[in-house]
Amino acid sequence: MSISQLEMFMRLLLAASVGGIIGFERELKGRDAGVRTHTLVSLGAAILTMTQLEASSWLLEFARNNPELSHVLSSDITRLTAQIVNGIGFLGAGTIIVSKRTVTGLTTAASIWAVASLGIAVGMGYYFMAIASTFIMLIVLRIVKSLFKIDRTKQLEIKYKSRDETLKFLNKSFKDNHITIVSTDHSITYFEDGSTICEDLYTLHLPVNFNMMRYISNVGTYKNIMKINTIKTRFDN
What we know:
This protein is α+β, with helices and mostly antiparallel strands and about 240 residues long. The protein has helices at about 5-30, 35-65, 75-95, 105-125, 125-145, 165-175, 210-220; strands at about 95-100, 100-105, 155-160, 180-190, 195-205, 225-230. About 55% of the residues lie in helices and about 20% in strands. The strands form two sheets. It has a four-stranded antiparallel sheet with strand order 4-5-3-6, with helices on one face. A two-stranded antiparallel ribbon has the order 1-2. It is elongated.
């Protein structure tokens, strides 16, 4: 049965709304893919889904009116929606950034993919499923992480001179503060006058209730250290 114009408008409006709600949460977190991106993804998914439903309805009606041609007609409702899910994967991949062993944007990519499914659900007319799923997604994005937050791994970037002397100081500092070195990336720049500048990236496992800002302030006063800063290491953003 064909969808009425009012029903079609309501589905489009609801699809845009549920997508916008999730996008608003992402925008509050400062993500590039915010309200507009998520709204358009959900709306687009609903449009394509309803287009598929309308096409299927038209084919069914045509087959009823022309039974002699029914054997050459076919329509798979799931085919177009499957292509939506696959296509959204490319959009989500664009929000993932890998830099200096840090991965950001995974949660935003997942939210874009999930928002497409919300649009499909609305387009199919499964309103309760779409609204309930939106509520659950908001819980996952806003509450779950705070309940299971484990943030004891940090990346520390240090630029310094006098390599041997400074490394001895840093290793002693880590040991005195009960800091475990998970991994280290070293980089050395050589100058024509024979001097060198080192830039190391440490991935550190910190003790409970460790004050990183205080630690940086203390270590940063060492004579050979030129720059020291932390790098965000969250893999779920």
